[in-house]
Design a protein that fits this description.
There is one protein chain. By secondary structure, the protein is of the alpha+beta class. The protein has a 5-stranded mixed sheet, covered by helices on one side. The longest helix is centred in the first third of the chain and has 12 residues.
Length: 78
């Protein structure tokens, strides 16, 4: 049902090191990095090729991002 979620972190390199270490015992690993110049820095973690947990560098906020899986666009509109 939940496709993926993300949280903001203030220091992407420290957060990458932390989540690399703490998620490894759970069988999860970093499967994707996004580094676009000085604007966007993010990493996605998962147990396979698909990232399900994202860390995104930016001002930490109390809210995150949660995406639900849908079978098609019509289901989203419904």
């Amino acid at each position: 049902m939940i496709d993926h979620l993300s949280i903001h972190v203030s220091d992407i390199e420290k957060a990458r090191a932390f989540y690399d270490a703490v998620l490894a015992p759970l069988g999860a690993k970093r499967v994707m990095n996004v580094d676009v110049e000085e604007r966007v820095h993010a990493s996605g973690y998962g147990t396979d090729w698909k990232p399900v947990f994202w860390i995104v560098e930016g001002q930490p906020t109390p809210q995150g991002h949660v995406a639900f899986r849908a079978v098609d666009h019509a289901a989203v509109n419904a």
